Amino acid sequence: MTTSATASLRETGTPIIAIRNLQKSFGSNQVLTDISLDVDKGEVVCVIGPSGSGKSTMLRCINVLEDPTGGSIVVDGMDMTDLDLDIDAARTRIGMVFQSFNLFGHLTVRENLTVAQIKVLRRSKAEADRVAEENLAKVGLSEKIDAKPSSLSGGQQQRVAIARALSMDPDVMLFDEPTSALDPETVGDVLQVMRNLAEAGMTMVVVTHEMEFARQVADRVVFMDGGVVVESGPAKDVIGDPQEQRTKDFLARVLHPGQLG
Amino acid sequence: MSTPPASQQRGPTGPTAPTATADATPKAKMSKRQKAKLSRGIQYAILIVIAVVIAVVADWPTLIDTFGRIDIAIGMFPDVITKALKNTVVFTGLGFVLGLAIAIVLALMRLSSVGVYRWLAFVYTEFFRGLPALVVFLVMGFGLPLAFKGFNLPQLIIIMIALALVSSAYMAETIRAGIQAVPKGQVEAARSLGMSSSRAMFTIVLPQAMRIILPPLTNELILLTKDSSLAYILGSSVDGRELTALARAEIVNTANLTPFIVVALCYLVITIPLSYLSRVLEKKYGSADSGVK
User: Fold this and answer.
1) Which among B58, B118, B245, B259 would be 20 to 30 A from A88, CA to CA?
2) Of B188, B192, B214, which to mutate for an interface test with A (greatest number of A Cβ within 10 Å)?
3) What is the ipTM of this complex?
4) Side-by-side strand order, sheet with A78-79
5) pTM of the full predicted structure?
């Protein structure tokens, strides 16, 4: 039902995520000045930028983990800033993956994947199990289904976290620096899972420092700095041939960290 | 009162005194390990001397006659177990359960976004944490019946409420600290999966907080076991006596202090297993693997 609804939206050209003039302040500290961004269904958007540029805050505003101070966010036709919206129901359609995994430490991998399916989506135990197994297979960790999160490596935990988000059958997936807390040798596995997801047609917004991933996977790259979108376009343009000076400076620092100035 | 200064003194003189002795001996050159060995030997010697002095100086016949009369001890059985010990356990158990329920509510109020709740819980906690348990018992036992003449609350209920009031303030702080020790990311992950804030609290946060809370909560249960002795000031029927009340009655009856020793042993029968439980829980939950990163 959701799919057909979004498909018709796609036909009329309505983006699945529409951010308009988004503002966010923490006290007197304005983190997001004026962000407008559209994401189409099936599109993979990578958000890059220096730390403190507001990328994560922008992402967290999309599912209202942070309350926007101004502007509007519409996801899949739902006005996320509308106080009458059932925010819990809306969030089930927006998967989120965190930098620090945030797996539930007291639950097994299976329970991590099923608890919200059962308690929120009211799926039967059997169906929740089936969905969990299916998604765990997608991230290549079927054999870990009865493990505790603490016995897994960082990369494995992050893949479980992705499977947990997918188990809610979301329409879009948000990734908040999913590989920043990982040991370098486990980053590849997580990026591969995300690449597969992108190829399967998932709508993804990825805040990341992985330029190579952005270059290869993203349909569009958004460069943010100082709470605004500085530059946005196809990956090969923004990363390969940036127009704005701030983008050039940032990419020079990230891509060639050895060279100063 | 006198302990802190004594221990303060022990701090500086403890290590230096043996070293000084060691330096004074002709063979002044000692390795660090030898010095440590000598220092420990001296400490043991002092302990032994103290024990011997006490053993020699004490008036054992009088002591045994006052505290160790086997016949009086035997005379207290089986009532000391079937009534007094049972009552202590029942009072403590009921007080603890009610106290825990109040404490959970208080902890959630302290963490609430509603200012009035936070303030009420804060005042309650500060108030009852600061009052001696004895005062709470006196007010509950004698004040309430005067204030509400219509209600003739059974003594058991009064004791239960008094113990709950005393313990809930401490337990609320413990529970609040436990909840706050669960990383914020756990709530965010739960909310991002569509859980409401209360569902996230009960399904995700509280079970993980329990690991942190359980060991100190067991300690609180031990403290409460001892606090239940204050029920004696409310007076009671013979069948309603807990351990301390029974001891006081027996002391009057026998003109001997042996009942205190018997009752003390009874308290240990309750508290030592609880201490053991607390250590087991601490080992199980308190150490490395909390599963939370």
Assistant:
1) B118
2) B192
3) 0.90
4) A29-39, A17-26, A70-75, A78-79
5) 0.76
